[in-house]
Amino acid sequence: MHIGFIGLGNMGAPMARNLLKAGHRLSVFDLSEAAVGSLVEAGAAALPPAGIAASDAELIITMLPAAPHVKAVYLGDEGLIARARPGVPLIDCSTIDPHSAREVAEAARRHGNPMLDAPVSGGTGGAAAGTLTFMVGGSTEDFERARPILEAMGKNIIHCGAAGNGQVAKVANNMLLGISMIGVSEAMALGVALGMDAKVLAGVINTSSGRCWSSDTYNPFPGVLENAPASRGYSGGFGTDLMLKDLGLATEAARQVRQPVILGAVAQQLYQAFSAGGHGGLDFSAIINQYRKGDDA
Ligand code: NAD
Question: How far is the CA of 7 from the centre of ligand 1 (A)?
Fold first, then answer.
């Protein structure tokens, strides 16, 4: 299949590479010439967005930083929707707020283009390995048509309901992740401050009722899990600023429906303070450093 792919950053580039590996023909665009050049070397063709829209691409995928970028690419007289051939499906994999996703999907529907919001989890490692989870919003028919393409980039492809619901699932999950990481950080720091060995404490939690992904797979205490970012100075992994972005999406989406997200808001403020302290580039599990003191930290 000929696929247009716009947004070749940390996530988009490896996703596009997996589509090439699966045998698809790709036309790509990014504001960064270097990003485009690297995909062209791998076998893709370079085309501006208008060229992709006017081409015989049978599907267009975007992977952009945030809602303003998504709206800039899709909407307006020069946008993808205005220029796309009617009937060509559009899939936005960026993480944005559900309201903006629904606005763009509605504009696409009016123009005669099926649209899916399909944000991902699994990080850059999952993007490279082709093991991402896709949380997809849109009609069942459009979802089933897109599934084989998404399977070339991911392992779990989940239909979450109508347009925008992929983003709803993503913000709910990541809000819980932010909260659970803070909870595990608080508990681990307390146990160590009271004199317990971090590995022994993690062992107890991970066989008891406090167990969760943040404690057993991604423990924030250095040395507990050899392969976790905590054991390599909080490098790599999922950046604090990306978590802050997702918590901002969750609290803003909650505000729009007057739904209290009390712990989500506290988590957002904790990550904001941590980022303001100059730590936005560290993995989000470094939030434990807000709790550790003196020689212990
Ligand atoms: P990134 O900043 O590395 O890449 C974004 C790319 O979009 C850049 O190459 C940029 O040049 C390009 N871009 C921006 N505006 C553009 C435009 N108008 N036209 C064409 N290209 C444009 O970001 P990323 O890490 O790849 O993340 C992409 C999305 O995936 C974000 O919404 C992010 O929240 C989400 N996400 C990221 C991760 C992660 O671990 N990095 C995990 C899950 C979800």
Answer: 6
From first to last of its 297 residues, what are the pLDDT tens digits of the chain?
Answer: 999 999 999 899 999 999 999 999 999 999 999 999 999 999 999 999 999 999 999 999 999 999 999 999 999 999 999 999 999 999 999 999 999 999 999 999 999 999 999 999 988 889 999 999 999 999 999 999 999 999 999 999 999 999 999 999 999 999 999 999 999 999 999 999 999 999 999 999 999 999 999 999 999 999 999 999 999 999 988 999 999 999 999 999 999 999 999 999 999 999 999 999 999 999 999 999 999 876 455
Helix 98-111 and helix 67-74: axis angle, to 10°? 10
What number of helices (H) and strands (E) belong to the chain?
13, 9
pTM: 0.93
Domains of the chain: 2-162 (3.40.50.720), 168-296 (1.10.1040.10)
Residue owning the nearest CA to atom 15 of ligand 1: 69
Residue 21 is among the residues annotated as catalytic for this protein: no
247 C-alpha to ligand 1 centroid (Å): 17
Q: Which residues of 47-62 are buried (b: 16+ CB within 10 A; e: fewer)?
A: bebeebbebebbbbbb
Three-state SS at 61? strand
5, 6, 8, 11: which to mutate for ligand 1, most atoms within 8 A of CB? 11
